[in-house]
Records
---
Amino acid sequence: MGKWAIAVHGGAGVDPNLPVQRQEAAKQLLTRCLNLGISALRSNCPAIDVVELVRELETDPLFNSGRGSALTENGTVEMEASIMDGPKRRCGAVSGLTTVKNPISLARLVMEKSPHSYLAFSGAEEFARQQGVELVDNEYFITEENVGMLKLAKEANSILFDYRIPNGGFETCSAGAAATDSPLQMNGLPISLYAPETVGCVVVDQEGRCAAATSTGGLMNKRTGRIGDSPLIGAGTYASNLCGVSCTGEGEAIIRATLARDVAAVMEYKGLCLQEAVDFVIKERLDEGQAGLIAVSKNGEVACGFNANGMFRGCATEDGFMEVGIWP
């Protein structure tokens, strides 16, 4: 019997002026999810069952997944998610969801109830109806706050990574400011703000089985049809017999780096321990991109890493260690 471990995240990149009340709300939500996972692991639930607690993060509008997802340029929500079971590298992923209340659970159904690994848009929605999952109107996912932030994004003619930064953070936003003042770029194009809030969970159970799950609403004011790293196995999510990884941050940089898979690769081929592998990929694989990740190993290790200014995160181990934080 090995030792279990769990980690959750609510996104890398945090507004440095984030109100204390929202910081505390985020910590409380992450703590609640950790406690749910700890209880399940103490009851010997398998890792793949435990990571599906991402549903809790999708249901709460605090982070960018499920209810509270970022809005497309058309003011609608298009969500995506993926899940992976390490022992046999089984996986399921979905994109372009507009009515599925919990995208992570549909991703698991793709893995377990279909011959495919990835379904998107109308095909994924039809599969959801066939499986009898809970469906809601698109308006369920849209919050008044997000509508206001989309308006600001359109006025600034930009894609916003953190659509919950207080309005004062946009005082200098304009197409010109985004093009000249920002040191951050996405695929070579300047962006004005960086602080995505994708959610994820990684778990290793007492049997040493690793699993990972990631869910997001994507970018505020994104083009319809845009797909990020979160549903891409090996990029935003990966699990194997060695580890489980969930990423968050600049999706295009994570995709180019195949970031989640690379953690497992350097553990396997370079012989690095989990934290060494996490540190290596964050430092060496992101080029100028900003991102973060959480990870667990089959040995019960837990690790996180990020090169942004902060990351909403929490972790716990069977030894009694538990930590929830935002800043470095």
---
Amino acid sequence: MAILQQLIVIVLEIWTIIFNFSASTAAAAQPKKYSAVLVFGDSTADTGNNNFVNTLFTANHLPYGQDLPGHAPTGRFSNGKLMPEFIAGFLGIKDTIPPYLDPNLSNEDLLTGVCFASAGSGYDELTTAASGVIPVSKQLEYFKEYIGKINGLIGADAAKKLLSEAVVIISAGTNDMTFNYYDIPTRRAQFNISQYQDFLQTKLHNYIKQLYDLGCHQMIVAGLPPIGCLPIQITARFKNPLDRKCLDEQNTDSQSYNQKLIKLLNQLQASLPGTRLNYADVYEPVIEMVNNPQKYSFTVVNRGCCGTGFVEVSILCNPTTPKCASDSQFLFWDCIHPSEAAYQIAAKSVESKISP
């Protein structure tokens, strides 16, 4: 009887080995749909490029990054990973995306994708005029430099194939609206809100066309969040700091911008052969978290975890700044940027509309 039991155990172990080998072989034989991830935009996407430029818009200090492996700040404007990284992980590309300006990038980093985004950036050149951050136009110049590097690594033909199979993520626009229209109304003297939205989307149209001409065919373009729910925007408008409600007018502006963006992406996809342009709706998941926080285990949605949560961001959110006890219960990490928990929820909403 004992011998029979041992034989059964041995047979089961053999079948387990065979099954695992077959499964891993099948997985290896399954081609990856996307070769790399390439990210452009602002602080919602910047994984650390601002560490390498002369600007005050930095997050390379604690408590930023406190929930990353090693609890080390990397330049991400959150307590952990950013939304493009969750999307890249879902698509099976990589779980973290290094900044292009990092001097320690490996060849593998370059070939699987990097981030060109810069916190504080936007489609409007005026947005970055005085901050020292990287304009989206300069991000495109870095991308051309990147193409030269991968050409050198794998050859022009293989590089062209890599770019055509890469997924591009573009996330910007919020800084344009807050810096140039709402808080410092420079552009308001030139445009009404609808005209300024059209101005920004003309810039985006040209940007997507340039990326396409450089070989990128698959893109995910983020819309605007409910800007009127950003803690800094609430602080700027309400005299009573305890009376913190979303600003309906700014949220309505975000919605109208997003409707125009959907139309623009559809038009571009029809006019650019071989493209696949996905709209990333960040408005709906964020407003859903604001309106139904308990559903997502949030207890605070109108201020950030860092400091008072009203005005602290970048250098004002630093190692000496008090912070909340549980950042996973806060929708916002600082007065502008979502927490890692919120980014992950928003990413899941986007993931449901794109296929890996």
---
Amino acid sequence: MGAAADVPAASVGDIRSGGISGTNTQDTTNNASASFPAKSAAMVDSSKGSALDIKLPKPKLPSVKVDDWNTANLGKRLGVDALSAATAGGLVAPLICMIDKGIIENASGKRSISASLLASATTLFTRPHRFLTSKPFVLIFAVYTGTYLTANTLDTTLSTVRKKDAATATSGAPKFFATSAANMSLSLYKDSQFTKMFGTVSARPVPPVTYALFAVRDSLTIFASFNLPTVISPRLAEVLPAALPAASAAQFLAPAAIQLLSTPFHLLGLNFYNRNGDTRMSERFAKVRQDWGMSSLARMCRIVPAFGVGGVVNGGMRRRGMEGL
């Protein structure tokens, strides 16, 4: 081997006989050290008898420059996100809870919408502690607080990694997909629970086509509630009086107006659930056209508090909170 080639013959003999001296040991060690440099691997080419030094490159790990992120008051900013979402969710949840309960009880034949709304309002004002701790209210509160919180934390995340102002609100595809996923998943769970609580018969399985149509309906509403307002508000500012904030007007108008387009998907999904598969598509579309006007108006009355009032409260509270940090 290469190390033995540098050791004198007499020293090898001494090693074998066990009589190597301290001086020879020192020489042997020095020779071996010379053959193996500390910062490289020494290899001996048997044909040429020369040592080859191979220097291994040092791997370069990717580095993240935290200086490129806006991390100032990040914990407080997330707190503002959560507080804004919970405030907006708690504000809109009572009315939406009463409306959703009334719609389901009316559809099941349990009682009319007006009777259901009166009963819910009576409970809210005479026994508020029972209403605000009931399962229906908690479910509605979770749906809208979760939706607003998803939008807020995404804005904070993007403003952090892109080094933008803390109050920046986005309107791109990431926000649309994130808020759609949160709202639709929470809403589907809420709807299944409301059906069990307020229906008069056992709910039958919902066909996949109904789920698909409801998903389109909710996607349109989410897009109009979280993406469109920031897009159309600059244009509204050009035509509205200065005393009327364009951002607030856009937050009310966009989700309400989109119901004219999303309601047919809602009605067609209900039609597939309520009618068997032998019904012709022409009959389904005729029923959708018949109910489109009043149903669109009713859905506007529900959506405006949910994403109009709630969106304005959430967005305004978050913006003021971020600017105050």
